[in-house]
Each structure stands twice: as structure tokens, then as C-alpha cells.
Amino acid sequence: MRWLAPLGGLGLVLAVAAAPQAGRAQSPVVVEFFTSQGCSACPPADAFFAELAERADVVALALHVDYWDYLGWQDVFGRAEHTERQRAYAKANGERTIYTPQMIVQGENLLFGHEEGPVRERIAAHEAKPERVKLALRRAGGGVEITLEPAGGAVGTAEVHVVEYAPERTMTIEGGDNQGYHHTFKNVVTSWATVGRWDGASSVTLRHDADLGEHVAVLVQRTGHGAILSAATLP
To answer: How many CB atoms lie within 10 A of CB 67?
Structure first.
């Protein structure tokens, strides 16, 4: 068995290797939505993202950033680490700037968040690709047990992320460019932990021991903010 390397202090335990459960559906496509309550261009994209969040074939995650807070309203969901993740994507793809609203599809396609057609097209294109990683999840105590197996040969080194999110947060913006904007924000990311690295070639089962909430997604992503190889949510 090859080892999945833990990242310090995150409570990850490697378990006995095992195959994922049979009969799992094709992995959903991950859409990361970089948005801000202080961004005047974001409300139309917020509405489109709310639609994506209802799709069973999509793992839609809203990462609110903090770089618009100076305009008069501090996004209550904004986090500096979300901004850093967006910057890392830009660097990995040779981009000089970051912006909102932006949607990144399956870790590969950096798109304007309000342009529905291109986003839908990229989701459909990724759904047509063969499965690369078999991923199975189950709750283990307060944490999660994650089983990984390459579906058709080695896929390269990857990182395993455990993401908690709030399905709905309704509020009214009380300042800044969007003052008076009332919206139910969907799938707001509340915590993001990179729990280990996988060699992409062996079958492993790992356990992330943490006090996880009800709504959790697990992403398997090629190292260096590359392609997302598989994703799943806990029931």
C-alpha cells in the first residue's frame, strides 16, 4: 500500500485500503463561485448560482471573498482564505488579476460568473468525460471516512479537501453598492480543510477526524490547483 501523506495537525488517519462501494453514480461536476456581497455585478450571478446549487449533478460551492469590503459593506461570509484560493487559481492559470463574479468549473475553466451559457457548456463537457477516480464517503463518528481508487490507471498526485457549507443564508445588505439587496445565498462555504495528499495510483481509505456539520463535500484535486478529479457530498 502507498501512503496518503497527512498535513500536520488536521487529524487525518490512514486506514486499511479498500475498494469504494459499487454502483456509485458518475462524479458530479464542481463549480466554485467566487462572489462578494459588496460586488455590484454579483447579484445576477448569485441568482444563477442558486439554480446550479439545486442540481444533483453539480457540487456548487460559494466562496465569498474579502477584497470588496472597503467599498462600505463587509461581506459577513467573506474569508481571506477564499481570496487566497482564487489567487492561487489565477497564478496556476497564468492570470494577472482576480475578479468577481467568477465561476471555476472542475478546477479547470475560469469563467465570468454571470455568463450562464459558457458555464453550462463546461459542466456538460465535464459530465461527458470518463470517470477518473472512484470516491466513496461515509460518516465515521463526527468525521468522515474517504475511500479513493483510480478508475482507469494512475491520475497523478492529488490533494483531498473536506469542505463544510451552509445550504442557505438569507439576509439583506445594509451598506455599500448593493444596499437593500435581499437574497438567499446558497451553499456558503464555512470551512475548508486540505486533509491529505494522495499518490493517485493506489487504493486507500482515510479518515478525517473532525466535528463536521450536516453538509459536507469532499473534493479530490490534482496538486497545484489543477483539475478536480472527483467529488462527492455526504448524505
So the answer is: 19
Q: How far apart are CA 187 and CA 53, in angstroms?
A: 7
pTM above 0.85, yes or no: yes
Burial bucket for residue 178 (CB in 10 Å: 0-12, 13-18, 19+): buried
CA quadruple 65, 226, 153, 159: dihedral, nearest 10: -50
Q: What is the CA radius of gyration of the chain?
A: 18
Compute CA distances 218 → 12, 118, 139, 146, 192, whole Å: 14, 25, 12, 8, 10
For residue 169, what are the β-bridge partners?
Answer: 185
Taking a C-beta distance cutoff of 8 angstroms, is the pair 68, 36 a contact?
yes
**Digit-coded pLDDT (tens) for 38-76:** 999 999 999 999 999 999 999 999 999 999 999 999 999
3-state secondary structure of 98: coil
pLDDT band (50, 70, 90) for residue 184 = very high
Q: Which residues share a beta bridge with 134?
A: 149
Q: Alpha helices, DSSP H only, in the chain?
A: 43-53, 80-92, 116-127
CA geometry: angle at 91 spanning 109 and 45, to 5°? 45
Closest CA to 221 of 110, 90, 62, 108: 108
- Assigned superfamily of 5-233: Glutaredoxin (3.40.30.10)
